[in-house]
Amino acid sequence: MLRLVLTSWLILAGARAQAQERVAVSYSSVEAPNANWYIAQDRKLYQKYGVDAESIFIPSSSTVINAIIGGSVKVGNGTGGAIASAAVAGASLVAVASFINTLPYELVVQETIKSAADLKGKSIGIARLGSASDVAARVLLRALGLEPDKDVAIIQGGSGAERVAAFRGGRIAGFPSPPGVIHLAKGIPHRVIITTNDLPKRLPFPYVCVTTTKSYLASNRETVKRIVMALIEGTHFFKTRKEESKKLLAKYSKQNNEAFLEASYVGNEPIFERLPLVTRDGMDIQLKEAVGRRANVNLKLDDIVDDSVVLQLEKEGFIERLYKQ
Q: What is the distance between the alpha carbons of residues 51 and 95, in angstroms, rounded to a whole number?
């Protein structure tokens, strides 16, 4: 009897330890497209689903990807471009979900810039090379008929607020930004020269992907699933609790500008995915571009996308139950 009780206790203790496994989770921006990550942190949703998460802010998705590759972070957010570039370089990465599958960006420029020709010879500030802002800058410049790096210099400038500061000081002529950031440029003469909404069709781009290594997913699938559950609930919170979400956006971005908070929420809420499957069209574009830059690499889409966790949650009715509450 004693042996049975002891065995039962050990099993229970082991299950509890496994349920509250300590995991480093990282997000790359304090702006609205990453809101579900810090909502999950702030609302203790990781713990709700049995993960003792150490939530870390690491500016730039490409830096998060490097941390995942190095092992200091187990699960983080990465853009499709950063994932594909790392994969063709030999990293064993996989995107298991994507909460935003397009690039909601606008190109803000000095008021004196009236046309694309006026941008020639000037510089655009991005967060970091390989980041979503880098992809957005190149897409928008090409849409204007300009060649990135050749006609317009692209320089690393940090977060949206840091780029606004560089813009204010005249160190850059413009910067790509998610909806709302333009309101932080209050008092600076500026204009939006082009947005991704001006493109002929919606740009498919896996923007906020839950990313991990293949080996971690294989050996810790249940943990990854629980992290995705927390992020899905964080998305539900953002989509259904506007004012509370704006308060959290203000807290983490350290910005209290109401116009910024409102525009950030209104611009991003509709594009957050209830069912966070990775856009295969968008990821395929990123993979082909990455493969094209490196010889003798043969990667397929299924090598870097694994839908199984999200599809399992859909089959189990988790998302449907959440949105019926």
A: 19
For tokens 């655009």, name the residue: 124
- Say how far apart CA 217 and CA 75 lie, in whole Å: 9
- What the block records as the tokens of 10 is 């050990």
Burial of 215 (0-12, 13-18, 19+ CB in 10 A): exposed
pLDDT score for 5 = 37
Domain final position from 178, 198, 218: 198
Does some domain include residue 11?
Answer: no
Output 290 or 6, whichever has higher pLDDT.
Answer: 290
Mapped onto helix, strand or coil, the DSSP state of residue 296 is coil
DSSP secondary structure string for all residues of 170-192: TS-SEEEE-TTGGGGGTTS-EEE
Which tokens sit at 127? 């967060």
pTM assigned to the model:
0.83
Is residue 8 assigned to a domain? no
Q: Is the pLDDT of residue 2 over 50?
A: no
* Cα–Cα distance for residue pair 74/54, rounded to 1 Å: 10
Q: What is the CATH number of the domain that holds 193?
A: 3.40.190.10
**What's the rounded mean pLDDT across residues 184-199?**
86
Residue range(s) defining the domain that contains residue 163: 106-198
pLDDT per residue as tens digits for the range 22-66: 899 999 989 899 999 999 999 999 999 999 999 999 988 888 999
Q: Would you give the DSSP letter of residue 41?
A: H
- Pairing state between β 174-177 and 106-110: antiparallel
